[in-house]
Structures are given as structure tokens and as C-alpha cells.
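## retry 2 of 3
previous attempt timed out at serialization; input unchanged, resubmitting
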Amino acid sequence: MFYVIAGGAIGLKTALSGGPLIVILGIFIHYFISFSFALSFFLLYPRISKVSSNKYLNGLLYAIFVWLTMTFIVLPLTALPSRPFVMNIQQIIGLLILAVVFGTPISIMADKYYKSRIAEGTTSNSRQAGFI
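## retry succeeded, writing output
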């Protein structure tokens, strides 16, 4: 899998003939993209939660956004051979895995983090008011 991911940057033929450094490149690219999506969702979560307060729905919608972005924008721009898009059971399973493993946990963690920040702000304000 990491050979193919690296193949998106350096070409599939080159990647498949490479060694352990190609795997490291593939791992780096994979986690860089995943981290970038997760960070952007985390930073945008306060705005997202104003539109929908349901953290599970937010996670599902974000997973759909990531899947659409990767499928129709990122992958066509890589050095991988292009293939026509076909919606099949593998695509649906991949989307569901992305929602369960990526979207929902990040949404739950962001929701918990921002709610604790709000609670801390309320607590610290009431403590300060008691001292005045």
C-alpha cells in the first residue's frame, strides 16, 4: 500500500522498483495527508459545531468530504495511472471505514476538547468573579 502511495508522487513504476526508503516516503505522505485533514477539521470544529451540534453527523459529513476530496481532486493530480470512477461496493466500504475510523473519532475528540475549553472558561470566570 505504501509503495502505491509513494507512487503517487514519484510514479508507480519507480515506486514499485524501490526499497525501504520508498515505503518510508509512502508512510510520510499518508500520514501527512491524514494529519492535514485532521488538523483542518479540528481547527474548523467550532464553526462546524455551530451549524450542526451532532458530533456523529459532523464526523460522517467530514469523512464524506475527505473521501470526495481524495477521490476527485487529490488522486487525479497524482502520478498514478488514471482510472474511470465507478461507484461499487469497495468504494462504499472504503467510505464507511473512513467514517468509522477517521471522521467519527476526530469529531468526538474535537467536541470533547472544545466543550472542556468552554467549561474551563466558565469555571475560571466564576472564580475570578468571586475574588472581585
